[in-house]
Amino acid sequence: MKIADKNTTAVSLVEEALKKAQKFADYHVFNFLDNENALKKAAEIDKRIKKGENVGRLAGVPFAIKDNFLAPVGSTTASAHILEGFVSPVTATVIKKLEAEGAILVGRTNLDAFAHGSSTENSYYGPTLNSADQTRVAGGSSGGSAVAVALDIVPFATGTDTGGSIRQPAAFNGIYGLKPTYGAVSRYGIVAMASSTDSIGFLTRTPEDMDLLMSICAGQDPYDMTTLPDFYNTNTDDLRYFAPDGERNIASEARNDGPERACRKSSSIRVGAIKDFDNDTVHPEIRQALKDKVEQLKQKGHEIIELDMPMLKYALAVYYIVVPAEISSNLSRHDGVRYGFRSDKVKNLDDVYANTRNEGFMAENKRRIMIGNFVLSSGFYDAYYLKAQKVRTLIIEEYAKAFEKCDFILTPVAPNPPFKLGEKVNDPVAMYLEDVMSTPINLAGLPALTIPAGTTKDNLPLGLQLIGPRRSDANLIELSKELM
Amino acid sequence: MKITREEINHLAQLSNFSLSDEEAKSLGTDLENIIKYISQLDELDVKGVEPTYQVFEMENVWRPDEIQPQEADREQLLALTKEQQDNQIKVPKVL
Question: pLDDT tens across A375-392, in order?
Fold first, then answer.
């Protein structure tokens, strides 16, 4: 990903990215392209390289941000009408960290409005098309970021994952997508969705790039009280299982100044396969892809452990109670008063609120806000919200028990390959069911990494996810290198 | 569970949406289907189970009580609104 080899320049890398963005405009990847500034910043980097200055580990690398990351670069819309015209005066911590390493922001990618959705069809600006088949959805909500990376417009893009929004579009486009441990990466400067599950992560084409991005972006941020002290670069217990004796650790070499991480000598690991997910509700080609990867693991001498996890089937119901509750609270700030869109059909202040919100939110935003207000309202709180948070405890305990028996879990990301545009968008429950395997991870705060897993017979990309205990992010990335 | 028109109106009011009749009707159907789905938790017995409200492992993060410089100043923040006057955000009359 680096340009230190001097065979190219930052300007030519950025020019190429912008040219490709133009060429693939019909996929509707970008909400905004920052052509002029990106080229200017690239020219500065080239100048600094010439002078022999230290330009950082991502010098000249073009990247895209999901359009729910704040920065005074274009308008941060979250693909929602209600944020139209909002140019943020603040910059997300992650963007600052990436730019400090010389990366060059080229544009903002499309998403489901406020990241509510699994197909990018809930965008106010229209859907993003799948990189392998334009009649199918990109996945969501980070659909634009996934397609930007899959079409090779940029080597990496940022995403947010509240219930699968990085992992599912990564799977739908055949790339890597990491939802880190809750609290690993700062949420400062990102449009809030559900604060107890929102995670910030990346979409890349290689595990090595993912490792480099995590080593740059993980760590505590004084502006986000829910960030953990950096464990990604400092954890040395039983990390890096997989590098056999004497073999160079590519990942830590890529971070030229990063600390060395210890490697456990044993190269055999135990990978859990969840029996409850192996049934007719999962597409046969996804079940086959899982079997193939399990076989690959066995051939490498790893042990496969069968897991019964009966609580997981309730995770989706828990998710669609807890998350809407948090959404209804987080999205109450969008009222047309301080920033963004304001309805012009107003006679008094109440109209500003009610008409702005009614015109400014998409149908899916409204469903979630209203469900949130329903499960939190008096009379229903105990039966829905409180009960869901108790079941959440049982789900977390079930993972804890599973990780006593195995080191990692391998499952599908979603039950189906990329579906047709329009197929599910008018049936909210059918769309929610796409999240059945991705949401439990967020409820438990675990890290999970989508890895490419071949294609269907119709050449649609398939992905699987590796799930680990909290703080095992680096190991997930390391293990994924064995499954290429 | 059947969601009545009154309940939809109540939720719209809590959410601050001025829904049209047509929208209220279609959202009502959607909400009914979603509530039917999430009601499957009814079959679980959670007696004695503690709820989990958050999965962050730390109790408290302290910082000194000092005024820090901010990225955005008053002018920049006021510039984001539709109307302002005398360093205040202007809105239509309340009543």
Answer: 999 999 999 999 999 999
